[in-house]
Amino acid sequence: MAAAPPPLIPADVRSRLRGLRLLPQRASGRRGIGMHASRSRGAGLEFAQYRAYEPGDEPRQIDWKLYARSDRFFVRESERESPLTVWLLLDTTASMAQADRARSGWTRLHGACALAACVAELALQQGDGFGLIAIGGDGVRLLPAGHGLRQRDRLHLQLHALRAHGRWPPRERLAPVWERIAGNDLVVMIGDGFDDDAIALAERLARAGRDVVHLQLLTAEERDFPFRDGHRFRDPETGDELLGDGAVVRAGYLARFAEARRTLDARLQAAGIRHDTGFLDEAIDAPLQRLAGRRGGHRG
Predict the structure, then answer these.
(1) 10 Å Cβ neighbour count for 98?
(2) pLDDT in tens, 276-290
(3) DSSP labels for 44-74?
(4) Phi and psi at residue 111, in whole multiples of 5°?
(5) What is the C-alpha to C-alpha distance for residues 184 and 167, in angstroms, rounded to an integer?
(6) N or C: which end of the chain has fewer CB within 10 A?
């Protein structure tokens, strides 16, 4: 019997997520991670009505006093702020298979899936819907938006099954993105930020009035470039290779990489897209925590 896959969210991270909320821009003028504000029935503060218990409902929503009187399960619904659907838009192209030598079994895609699971956990805590759009060499893989614990189970199964390969598909194959993401939805895009077509999609979504958050994931080696000897550097998507001495090319690489990051930050900021960059040697939820603590602007 195959061993169960490791949990996507460690216990300490799950505990920290309880202090975060998802914030749609339309409610307060801010984007992404912060305080949630919308109006709908859900697990909120002001009691609205009862309804019959359904599989997947949180046990804490059950009114146990009413159960004692009626011998039936009822769930308390509350007036909560608007229905929010969160779309997790994941880059699954070949470059997402990159890992650090110090932790070769933990790739960018592993980090992206864990981060996606964290965002879904926030949506679940709020009673909001969430779905998955994975874009890679196979085109678009879709998990329709849904609610509750069963939806979380479906999402985790999909995330565990994802593999990084191929290149970003042509624009005509991205029709499901536009068919599924409605104007009031929140899009959380997770990838390495290296593919111009992926960034162009984020910009088009923002121009079309979608609320977009971009989370970039990089390796520690890309940030620090610790290579000292001769190395062969290979682009996993194009196959292009570069031979070079790490110590000789390090300063030039770091300068160009910093400039590329500044250019991406400026591009996303100009599009009104809130964003942050995380690294594989950080805690999974670090980008979310930074966004939650930021009052506006972009990653500095």
Answers:
(1) 19
(2) 999 999 999 999 999
(3) -SEEEEEEE--TT--GGGB-HHHHHHHSS-E
(4) -65, -40
(5) 29
(6) N
Residue 247: pLDDT over 70: yes
- How far apart, in whole angstroms, are the C-alpha atoms of residue 34 and residue 45? 17
d(CA 297, CA 300): 9
Amino acid found at 6: P
Residue 217 has pLDDT above 60, yes or no: yes
DSSP letter, residue 82: -
CA-to-CA separations, 7 to 3, 4, 157, 184, 223, in angstroms, rounded: 12, 9, 11, 31, 27
Question: 240, 231, 216: which is closest to 108 by C-alpha?
Answer: 216
93 within 8 A of 267, measured Cβ to Cβ: no
Angle between helices 246-270 and 196-207 (to 10 degrees): 10
Supply 38's token pair: 């919308």
In angstroms, the CA 298 to CA 300 distance is 6
How far is residue 267's CA from residue 262's CA, in Å, rounded to a whole number?
9
Q: Please report how the helices 148-161 and 108-126 are oriented relative to each other, as an axis angle in degrees rounded to 10.
A: 170
Token pair 């121009």 is found at 207
Give the DSSP letter of residue 291: H
Residue with tokens 């159960």: 67
- Beta bridge partners, 90, equal 134, 190
pLDDT tens, residue by residue, 130-171: 999 999 998 999 999 999 999 999 999 999 999 999 999 999
Task: Count, in order, helices (H) and strands (E) of the chain.
Answer: 10, 15
Structure confidence at residue 133 (pLDDT): 98
Return the closest-CA partner of residue 278 out of 150, 151, 191: 191
Q: Are 41 and 65 in contact (CB under 8 A)?
A: no
Cβ–Cβ < 8 Å for 121, 288: no
Residue count of the chain:
300
pTM above threshold 0.90 = no
Amino acid at 239: G
